[in-house]
Amino acid sequence: MKIPTAACARLPVDVGAFQTTVFDAYDGKEHVALTMGELADGPPALVRIHSECFTGDVLGSHRCDCGEQLAESMRRIAREGRGAVLYLRQEGRGIGLAEKLRAYQLQDLGFDTVDANIELGHAADARDYGVAASILRDLGVHALQLMTNNPAKVAALTRLGIEVVARVPLVIPPRPENREYLNAKARRMGHLLDSPDVAETKAQIVVPAAKVPSDRSEPLFDLLSRVSARRDRPFVTLSYAQSLDGSSAALGNRPLAISGGASRCFTHRLRAAHDAILVGIGTILADDPRLTVREAHGVDPQPVIVDSRLRFPLDARLLTHPTRKVWIATTPLANPSRMRRLESLGAELLVVPVDTMERVDLSALLALLRARGVRNLMIEGGGRVLTQVVDQRLFDLLVLTVAPMMVGGTPAFAPHQSLRNREHTRIDRPNYLQVGDDLVIWGAPQVPGATGEGARDA
Ligand SMILES: Nc1nc2c(ncn2[C@@H]2O[C@H](COP(=O)(O)OP(=O)(O)OP(=O)(O)O)[C@@H](O)[C@H]2O)c(=O)[nH]1
Ligand SMILES: [Zn+2]
User: Fold this and answer.
1) Which of 297, 294, 341 has the alpha carbon at shortest distance from 319?
2) Which residue among 65, 112, 115, 125 is the active-site one?
3) What pLDDT sits at residue 205?
């Protein structure tokens, strides 16, 4: 999407003169590009994509490293005589200044930077880089060397079709006041902070995270980076794998590796494109999954487990998730002492009203997730949850991986209830991708009674 410029002027600062352009972005914020030299021609330029930090950038706060990263990146660009800083108005990793200060209060009480956000009902990182990609395209920049310590930023830009030929570390030596904060960023958000000295950092060639399919998957990831939540629930992607004969597990629900290596990378990339990931308790009992992003770059989505009867095992791997506190959604009928036990093991219990069958009411759960800041949610299974989601038409996008095998196992879906009595759910103008040996079918469900166009925009 072309992004209109609102105004521009030359701005001399200590390190040199930058052309300063304000963009009229579709999110209503005044994002800024500081550029030096000719960017559209020549080798990939040095670029900093900087998120606004009033406390660090303007006041020089010692709680973070932002102000120094901004100054250092401008210095490096001036030294090269060429490059750009995009100053994005994403204060507090997208949650705004007041919420960031609330997060600071929680950090003073012992929460780390990730848990503080989550405690306040936000995603650990609420930013997206769609505007940045549009501005870069407007500047004629399609490939760049990115000054960042954050691999998720590299991954996000790559998904948006900007080629990051190198990641240039921008490590600021810690101060006593921000040592713990920087450690938390490294430990919990995967920031690469071990280059000891700013002056020594050199560009590192970025190895593409996952040898995922072909560029033909870009429209899918591009779509995911642009979708916005509805008011009543997050944008929901239903993603699961099945064999040619429709099985998602071996007989008796025994686990089965269905998709190949390439599709696993693809699935991890999908996970990284979502704020949260939801599975039913059956999947936890059968597979004990970690639900993390391991085979792609990116931040782990918030795991959410639907567990009406609170059967969650006390030794499940999700209780030692490396970056997130697992959210277990249950009902007021669940055993209170079991709830307390799981809480003492680090889970967060979400008590949700029951539906007519005394299960977690999925619409109510989705509304709660939305209220907690989840903008997009990936639902990975299992059969019961998939069936309910399709029955109640609670999804916006389907991503189905079909592996070329016959299993004769447990069907991906439980027998449909209400669906049988209603119009069938069709995927509108589906897209087909080959990923390794597997076939990925993706598309939006047709809205009942709508034309193809409307369904596609759903
Ligand atoms: N919510 C929240 N935001 C913070 C906190 N500390 C800094 N920020 C914001 O974080 C943003 C910068 O993100 P960082 O995580 O420092 O770094 P990054 O942009 O992901 O990665 P780099 O490119 O390496 O700087 C700015 O918008 C800051 O205002 C915090 O404790 N909580
Ligand atoms: Zn900061």
Assistant:
1) 341
2) 125
3) 52
